[in-house]
Write a structure and sequence with these properties.
- With about 250 residues, the chain is of the alpha/beta class.
- Helices cover about 35% and strands about 15% of the residues.
- The chain has 9 helices and 9 strands.
- It has a 5-stranded parallel β-sheet with strand order 2-1-6-5-7, sandwiched between helices.
- β5, α4 and β6 form a beta-alpha-beta unit.
- The longest helix has 19 residues.
- The radius of gyration is 23 Å and the shape is elongated.
- The N and C termini lie far apart (about 50 Å).
- About 25% of the residues are buried.
- The mean pLDDT is about 95.
Length: about 250
Amino acid sequence: MKFTVMTLFPEMVDQVLSASVIGRAREKKLIEVQCMNIRDYSTDKHRRVDDYPFGGGGGMIMQCQPVYECYADLLKTTAQKPYTVYLSPRGSVLTQKKAKQLSEIPHLALLCGHYEGIDERAMEQMDCELSIGDYVLTGGELPAMVLIDCVSRFIPGVLGSSVSAEEESFSTGLLEYPQYTRPADYRGMAVPEVLLSGNHAHIARWRREESLKLTWRRRPELIAALDEAELDKRDREFLARLKNQEK
């Protein structure tokens, strides 16, 4: 899978995405990350890419011309049009479900904004706008890297185990259950006995109920969003007991 990041700070993106799991995935050619410097397409002698907004207002706006020409240059190098994403606080929120959908697209082009935004005419080239949360950052590079990290986890071989992406928080609509490792007892704090029992059915049920409990207490709206097919009879009975205990 290929990611193209259109940015004013390519060195920032490349440095972060050269480390850890994503860095190893790039070395193994499981994913490709290409950075394009929007400033290279400026026609200004000082490589300026921003200007004052028409109609007045505070701050500066990224100009249409360098963004548009950067994207046009990208299209010259690829046989198939990439799916284009503008990272913006006004976009729909990136979710695990959306990340999985994006992982099935062979080429994503990510546009990183700066200043007070980008000239709307450049937005005509975008397929969608995505946000990583209801807050504002100084630029789109961090959201772009978050998206690449999130999406890459679904690419076969990127994670050490295919089970990891399937069982972590949000993959099932629930928060992930608690995890433990050695030692089994640390300063009187013991690992739940069920995890040491070797009974895989009991362990699976314990993990399911812990996920339900954590989600109910911390993100109850996620429970409300689950449909009948995602909660079996034992799940519903457990939640009913939990609700009664909470009262």
